[in-house]
Design brief:
The structure holds 3 protein chains of 3 kinds. Chain A contains 17 helices and 9 strands. By secondary structure, chain A is mainly α. In chain A, the strands form 4 sheets. A 3-stranded antiparallel beta sheet of chain A has the order 1-2-3, with no helix packed on it. A two-stranded antiparallel sheet of chain A has the order 4-7. A two-stranded antiparallel sheet of chain A has the order 5-6. In chain A, a hairpin with a 4-residue loop joins β2 and β3. The radius of gyration of chain A is 31 Å and the shape is elongated. The chains are: A mainly alpha, B alpha+beta, C mainly alpha. Chains in contact: A-B, A-C, B-C. Chains B and C meet through β14, α6 and α13 of B and α2, α4, α6 and α11 of C.
């Protein structure tokens, strides 16, 4: 029964989504972008780090593709000419002039054995969608659809590879943020009001009363668990006492007389509080309090500051791939709070619903209730959240790159490429506008993800249907 | 009789002038302005990239600071003549060097006044020196008063005579004495009363500008955090600073420094005429300015490739790798380092990294210090074939199946290279080096690391240090003796390649000896010869493989005039003397 | 109400302590400290650096540094900036003021532009103007702010070349000769400079607000009480402004508190490119130089402002919406 209803829900959502024209368009564009990113090697004519110093191609403009035969004027197979650099010492700009002696036709599905690539790091291949072929490359002919950077590397190939990073950074970090947000938000909401003990009082008889029921195996396990909890309590209290003593001892040299008194009193109060808990009262906490305080603390530090500060804590010297995962993790850590807050609210009301109460009464295990009954009810919100968070994370990645804190060479991302354009300043606009292309790619991805997000929201929200 | 009378009249004229002020006349050859062309009035708008942090000369630590801007880059008793590079008296009128060359006595110019009208006397130098030397103040200048571990001392002889005593004869004696004085009547009472803490609390950025006192041409008028500082003319400066026509200096009424965190914002301001002077750092900036000038949007003068800059970029190999004898032996071999030098395509670095506007480097002396450069010192320019040949001589003849060179025992020629992460230019240099090396079969694993970690590795001491090779740069180093006091001597903390504390190569020992010999030789020509010899040994040893540096360019708006003649526009002398600038339009 | 306020203020304490300790801890994990950068200066001896490290208290254990910082905080002392050698508050506060001007203006813009546009769209949903407006709102959202600012600066330089003047100043916060202006003229000058960067900041948030506003108004217009109001013959104007809009605006006002963090962060990189002397350029400098107390001080102050902003948002909501009571 439940199966059937959820299916019709999805079906009607899909019907709604399809009526949202912008969302369908956005979804289509995104599909293309992700396919290109997945098969980057195939769609790029060159390896993203391929360059030659001789002949140089520093900031070469997009190669002109000729469609007509220069002699007959008839349509012919598309071809390009070799270009030669001339540094104009009058204006200090590079100029590239076509050398019209030889034509280099553009081939499709061309093999490049000296520049092989891998798909998903597994399959090695060397067939590319288009290119000039090995021979032409050796002779110094190139096809640059979007020009080159200061090394003379093909910007189009770099953008295709950059898409891998930019598009997955958004996706992976949202996935991680959602896992954190759903887990912690769900935990906080479901267990709100339940107190969980972290340390047991040492003088209360219950703490020393070992469980003595069940078979030998069960009893041993219970003994073991109880003993573990008890010894952990000891460790906890001892650690707390040591920290307090250390703090007081360290501080004594650095304070005036009055401060020492005030601090001493505070320390004593803290110690008394800890002692009373250690001896008589259990120390427990409400998971909701803990999670929500954490969310508040994270929210109290402005987004950008948190992002930069967290990045600053890690060395810059990381392996480029590790940097990639670090950026993902940081974005997720910065982003989970908002989702957790909403999920908690939803779960708080869901757990009072009849179907949950009924499941509890039937003795369904808690984990099952959470997984099967509560979390699915938050799914549509989470999906909408994800589709709208991805674009903001793509933008955040470009912000990190702007500060030089994002992905590093030899990997590349749209943010990193855009930073290069930004560093070029006005010259990027007036002398080599093609370096702005990564900005357009970011724009396109963010825009289409937002369209899709809007479509999903309308599709999942019955009140918005029309 | 007639002669005697004339003599008396002459003397009286001199005496009256003396009572007014002993005037320093700014030579006309320091500017392109025609005599009498300059008019008083107007404003110069300059800019800086990093915000100012204090107005206090004793705690300032930035490269560009308000105290430096007020005192023409910390000028004092003596300044250098940009046309010759020689020291000439400025706030002093003359000096005497003792016979053993360890004492210099300066006669202070009479009639100079602080911007609050109080006279400038020997006490001001003494107080300034005392405060700089107080370790609790934490002045950045303190270390410049030491030669080795021994301090230079300053004594007052009378109100207008002051004596510097050096622990030994020193080529940089005048540079040490050239620091700017600060008013003893302002800092003295605070220092006597509250000590170092009192000094540190003075002249913060929100100090009332009325309390700021300087001898220099301009004094702070207002400061807005993160935006700009405005200086106004110091009326007393003109009493003892005049041009050849006898006009008081400076000509300008105001001097303004805008703060731009983003270089593009500074360029926009220059292009639209809001800023008068711009230092283009890339070929893109130059192209933009050229274009604006060509299209008639901007009336400006642009000096491209005026000189190389006074800084270096280099690769340093670590000689202290006790735990890896294979690499240690390799890095200690001059042949290996020469091979590496042959693998650095300096022209490509200049092209790719500096947009074609840079200068290759082969030794520790900055290319801009032309009088110091020994053109005959050995060089190892880009030549992969020679590199391969040298490596073959070291035993790396075969290649393994991945195409990397191996020695007879099959050990691969491979090492790690790092530079400070975030420095784009160095990362690009490293990339070029790695790619060139790969072509001859040398495997370099490049990984940029955090600046602070990098410094930690470079400065580590002892027989085993945690790096293979690092690309880094140094600035600083004087015109009097352009070799670093802590770089060349084997115990120096910037003796980057070998920090075992002892010289390992006889050529290192020789370089150290030549360094001290030059440092204590006061005759300039003789010193230059020692410098030449030092460069020859250095070239042969190649302790550090130098790469290249960018060039210095400058552009100014033509509404200002009075800039240096072309011959003396360089990264050392800059483009102008502040007091000689004037508004032309 | 006052009980609620007191409870919120008490809650503020652990949040504040948590945020500052987190900042303190994270900042100190990074290798090196403020003085490491001097180590490569040939003019400075290693002994000097060790001495200064001791003077700055950077050789003490982390926890102790934090406790001392807290202790000084009770005296209203946020520590001393290593870079500026001055109390942190003195360095940071003018920058926070500048940032607040920019943020304040952009919030004003946001509401002045966003709410009317959202209403307009809600009244003509699924028409061409609706789509066109949505597209432009998305446009602002999809361009990284720092890049948009650079584009605008470039366009204004070109504008100046073409016409010899610009409608808005290109970067900066005050004009030359600012000090000589009368006080009210100074304010006009600052606002005039703030318009362009504030506009860029707004573009990023505009699409969100217009979307929410559009949806809200549409939903409210479908409610029974609106139908009742119409049925009893009230003028459409009255229905719209007196009944519909009031209710539609409520959730948006509730969100003001939540907007502040986004806007302070969002003004960030724009401040750098537009040369606005706000808090971000200072923070970037301080992070780069590892000026510990400036970093912690900025985070402490801005988190305090954020928390206060959230409380104000709640109070505002209680004033606007009589259904909400805090007990």
């Amino acid at each position: 029964m439940a199966e059937l209803r959820s299916e019709t829900f999805l079906q009607s959502a899909w019907r709604q989504f399809r009526r949202h024209r912008l969302a369908m368009l956005g979804g289509g564009v995104l599909l293309v972008l992700y396919v290109i990113a997945a098969f980057a090697g195939f769609f790029s004519p060159y390896d993203p780090n391929f360059y030659t110093l001789n002949p140089p191609f520093r900031y070469a403009p997009p190669t002109r593709i000729h469609l007509r035969d220069p002699e007959t004027g008839k349509l012919t197979r598309p071809f390009v000419y070799k270009v030669k650099r001339e540094l104009d010492l009058e204006t200090f700009t590079d100029r590239y002039v076509e050398d019209r002696t030889k034509r280099y036709p553009i081939y499709f599905l061309v093999r490049t054995p000296d520049q092989p690539y891998t798909i998903f790091k597994i399959f090695r291949w060397d067939v590319r969608l288009f290119g000039l072929g090995e021979e032409a490359t050796r002779e110094g002919a190139r096809i640059f659809l979007l020009g080159t950077d200061n090394f003379g590397r093909d910007l189009f190939s770099r953008m295709v590879y950059g898409a891998q990073v930019s598009l997955t950074v958004g996706f992976l970090s949202v996935l991680l943020a959602m896992m954190l947000g759903l887990f912690l938000g769900g935990l906080a909401g479901y267990y709100q009001g339940t107190r969980i003990a972290i340390a047991r009082p040492l003088l209360r008889p219950e703490s020393w009363r070992f469980p003595a029921r069940g078979g030998l195996g069960r009893r041993l396990l219970a003994y073991f668990l109880h003993g573990l909890a008890l010894s952990l309590s000891f460790v906890f209290w001892a650690g707390l006492a040591a920290t307090l003593a250390y703090g007081y001892w360290m501080l004594r040299d650095y304070s005036g007389a009055l401060e020492r008194v005030v601090f001493g009193v505070l320390m004593l109060a803290a110690a008394a509080w800890a002692l009373s808990h250690a001896l008589w009262r259990p120390l427990s906490f409400d998971p909701d309090d803990l999670v929500m305080r954490l969310v508040e603390i994270m929210a109290a530090i402005p987004f950008l500051f948190l992002l930069i500060t967290l990045r600053a804590a890690f060395p810059m010297e990381m392996d480029p791939l590790a940097t990639f995962y670090l950026v993902v993790a940081i974005l997720a850590i910065v982003g989970w709070g908002g989702l957790a807050r909403v999920i908690r609210g939803m779960v708080l009301s869901l757990r009072e619903m009849d179907f949950v109460t009924a499941a509890k009464a039937l003795g369904v295990p808690e984990l099952w209730i959470i997984l099967r009954h509560i979390l699915p009810a938050t799914a549509s919100y989470s999906i909408v959240y994800a589709s709208l968070a991805i674009p903001s994370f793509i933008l955040a990645e470009s912000g990190l790159s702007f500060l030089g804190l994002g992905i590093t060479e030899p990997y590349t991302s749209w943010g990193l490429l855009l930073k290069a354009a930004q560093d070029g300043g006005f010259a990027s606009f007036s002398d080599r506008p093609w370096v702005l292309a990564p900005g357009f790619a970011i724009f396109l991805a963010v825009l289409t993800w937002n369209f899709v997000g809007d479509g999903l929201r309308d599709a999942f929200d019955p009140r918005r249907r029309r | 009789m007639r002669n005697a009378i004339r003599l008396v009249i002459g003397l009286s004229v001199l005496l009256t002038a003396g009572a007014l002020a002993q005037v320093f006349t700014w030579p006309a050859k320091w500017t392109t302005a025609k005599p009498g062309e300059a008019k008083p009035g107007g404003t110069l708008v300059d800019y800086t990239i990093s915000d100012f942090r204090t107005m206090n000369p004793f705690i300032t630590a930035e490269a560009d600071s308000i105290p430096d801007r007020m005192t023409m880059n910390d000028s004092g008793l003596v300044i250098r003549d940009p046309t010759t590079g020689e020291w000439i008296p400025y706030m002093a009128t003359s000096w005497e060097v003792s016979e053993d060359q360890t004492e210099i006595t300066f006669k202070i110019r009479k009639g100079m006044k602080w911007s609050d009208g109080k006279p400038i006397t020997a006490d001001d130098w003494i107080m300034t020196y005392r405060i700089h030397m107080d370790p609790d103040v934490g002045s950045n200048s303190r270390d410049s008063f030491f030669i080795g571990d021994k301090p230079v001392t300053v004594e007052k002889i009378d109100d207008y005579t002051i004596k510097f005593v050096y622990p030994k004869p020193d080529a940089e004696a005048f540079a040490i004495a050239s620091f700017s004085p600060w008013p003893a009547h302002v800092f003295g009472p605070v220092y006597e009363e509250k000590g170092a803490e009192g000094i540190k609390a003075m002249w913060g950025l929100n100090e009332d500008p009325k309390n700021i006192v300087t001898w220099g041409p301009f004094v702070v008028e207002s400061y807005r955090p993160g935006e700009r500082v405005i200086f106004k003319k110091n009326p007393y400066f003109g009493e003892w600073n005049q041009d050849e026509a006898g006009n008081p200096l400076p000509y300008l009424d105001r001097y303004q420094v805008n703060i731009y965190k983003d270089i593009n914002a500074a360029l926009a301001a220059f292009l639209t005429g809001e800023v008068d002077i711009f230092g283009p750092s890339t070929v893109e900036h130059i192209a933009q300015i050229k274009k604006a000038v060509k299209e008639g949007k901007l009336d400006a003068t642009l000096k491209v490739n005026a000189s190389p800059v006074a800084s270096s970029q280099f690769v340093v190999f670590n000689w202290n790798k006790a735990k890896d004898p294979f690499k240690e032996k390799l890095f200690r071999s001059a042949k290996f380092r020469k091979a590496m030098s042959h693998l650095i395509n300096r022209q490509a670095v200049v092209d790719v990294v500096y947009g074609g506007l840079g200068t290759p480097m082969y030794g520790s002396v900055y290319p801009v210090l032309t009088q110091w450069i020994n053109k005959d010192a050995p060089k190892y320019p880009y030549d992969p074939e020679k590199a391969a040949q040298l490596l073959a001589e070291l035993g790396f003849k075969k290649k393994d199946k991945e195409g990397y060179l191996v020695d007879a025992e099959g050990r691969r020629l491979e090492f790690n290279l790092s530079t400070n992460a975030g420095n784009n230019q160095r990362e690009q240099i490293a990339k070029l080096f790695v790619d060139e090396a790969k072509k001859v079969g040398v495997k370099i694993n490049f990984r940029p690391i955090d600046f602070n970690t990098l410094v930690g590795q470079l400065l580590a001491k002892g027989p085993d240090r945690p790096f293979d090779a690092i690309i880094i740069g140094l600035t600083g180093g004087g015109l009097d003796w352009p070799f670093g006091s802590n770089v060349v001597p084997c115990k120096g903390n910037l003796h980057l390649w070998n920090r075992s504390g002892t010289c390992l190569d006889p050529r290192e020992t020789l370089m150290e000896a030549l360094y001290y010999k030059g440092r204590t030789t006061l005759d300039f020509k003789e010193r230059v010869q020692i410098g030449y010899k030092l460069q020859e040994v250095e070239g042969d040893l190649q302790p550090i493989v130098y790469i290249a540096g960018p060039n210095y360019h400058v552009a100014w708006n033509n509404k200002l005039a009075g800039f240096h003649p072309d011959e003396i526009i360089s990264s050392i002398w800059g483009a102008y003397e502040l007091p000689l600038l004037f508004q032309a339009k | 109400m006052s009980a609620y306020l007191v409870r919120r203020l008490i809650h503020l304490v652990p949040t504040f302590l948590g945020a500052t300790f987190l900042a303190f801890f994270v900042l100190q994990i990074a290798p090196g400290d403020f003085l490491t950068q001097w180590a490569l200066d040939p003019k400075i001896r290693p002994e000097t650096i060790e001495r200064m490290r001791h003077n700055f208290g950077l050789d003490r254990p982390l926890l102790l540094q934090y406790l001392i910082w807290l202790k000084n905080l009770l005296h209203g002392d946020l520590g001393v900036s290593f870079m500026y050698q001055r109390p942190v508050l003195e360095v940071v506060w003018p920058r926070i003021e500048n940032s607040l001007i920019l943020v304040g203006l952009s919030i004003l813009f946001l509401y002045l532009i966003g709410i009317p546009i959202g209403i307009y769209q809600a009244l003509r949903p699924y028409t061409l103007p609706d789509y066109v407006i949505s597209f432009f709102a998305y446009f602002g959202l999809a361009i990284p702010n720092f890049f948009f600012m650079l584009i605008l600066i470039f366009l204004f330089v070109k504008f100046k070349f073409a016409f010899g003047w610009t409608p808005f100043p290109i970067g900066g916060m005050t004009s030359q000769g600012f000090e000589q202006l009368a006080p009210w003229r100074q304010w006009v000058d600052i606002l005039w400079h703030a318009i362009l960067p504030a506009f860029v900041v707004v573009t990023a948030d505009l699409s969100g607000l217009t979307r929410v506003m559009r949806a809200q108004v549409m939903e409210v217009l479908g409610q029974d009480y609106i139908r009742t109001a119409r049925a009893k013959g009230l003028a459409e104007r009255v229905v719209l402004y007196k009944h519909a809009l009031r209710n539609a605006v409520i959730p948006i006002l509730a969100n003001i508190g939540g907007l502040l963090p986004g806007l302070i962060g969002g003004a960030g990189l724009v401040e750098v490119v537009a040369n606005w002397p706000g808090i971000t350029p200072l923070l970037l400098d301080a992070l780069l130089q590892q000026d510990l107390y400036v970093n912690v001080g900025i985070i402490a102050l801005s988190s305090l402002l954020l928390i206060v902003g959230n409380i104000l948002g709640d109070l505002l909501l209680a004033v606007v919406d009589p259904r909400i009571r805090y007990g």
